[in-house]
Amino acid sequence: MPVARELRSLDIDIPAQPDALVKLSLLLAEEDVNLQAASALIESDMALAAAVLKAVNSSLYGLKGRVQTVQQAITYLGLREVSAITFEMGLRAAFPPAPELEPIWQRASLRGMLMGRMGQQLGVDGWAAHSAGLFEECGKAVLFRHAPEHYRSMLRAAKTDVELVSLERAGFGVSHEALGAALCESWGLAAPAVASVRHHVDVQAGGDIPPQVQRSALLALSAVAAALMTDPGQLEATVQRVMPQVPLDETLVLRAARKVQAQLDDARAHGR
């Protein structure tokens, strides 16, 4: 999908989707996904497969034994989570390593898992939810790659993403939300995931979900995940604020959020 004309005029490059992820996207779009073909595709890229297995074996996923192959990872975690980890590794690889980006990737991994698992429990598209969480801050990586020194100073100066967006628009004429949404579009993510990336800063800061957003549950889950990650004490207030705007039950959302958080806490507590 082409990048919007107003973004092209800014001369800010958006990385192309890696070939392996293009092929994986096509496999995932099939009605009856071939699990063996998916695992073989991931394993065909040795660097990507190694990164996926390293991530799968981290304490974040809480597996009791060490996973040796992508096929084993799919058996234990399911294709959705393994595919999401693959996209995470592909996204990381699209940008040069930098200490400033590492917290972004760490938050992306956790946020994607939170949103994906909540979505799955609530009957929301788990893959779209996981993707939205994973790509939420990717526009920051685009701006960092475009102007490392300038953007590094912005990251240091901004205390919140609202402040950061203001600095970005003044300095670059575009925000990381818009660039992130453009990257999502060019990589073929679902429209609801793109909308979640485009509008997450305002909704997380207390704004309403824009009425034109379709399948707005993803944006609501983004706000819930943000509360879990930054201030769990605000979880109930966030759910009460956001859920009346979407077709999700507040009680069920709270239950799903607490269950997912408990799963992660348990995995970390046991050092798995």
Give a short summary of the structure.
The chain is mainly α. Helix content is 68%, strand content 0%.
Structure description:
The longest helix is centred in the middle third of the chain and has 21 residues, at 102-122. This protein has 16 helices and no strands. The relative contact order is 0.12. The mean pLDDT is 91. The protein is mainly α and 272 residues long. Helix 2 runs antiparallel to helix 3 (35-43) and helix 6 (79-93) packs antiparallel against helix 7 (102-122). The chain is globular and about 45 Å long.
Descriptive keywords:
272 residues, mainly alpha, Hypothetical protein af1432, 0% strand, globular
Which helices and strands, and how do they pair?
Elements: H1 5-8, H2 19-28, H3 35-43, H4 46-56, H5 70-77, H6 79-93, H7 102-122, H8 126-135, H9 138-146, H10 148-157, H11 161-172, H12 176-186, H13 191-204, H14 217-230, H15 235-242, H16 250-269
Helix pairs in contact: 2-3, 4-6, 5-6, 6-7, 6-8, 7-8, 7-14, 7-16, 8-13, 8-14, 9-10, 9-12, 12-13, 13-14, 14-15
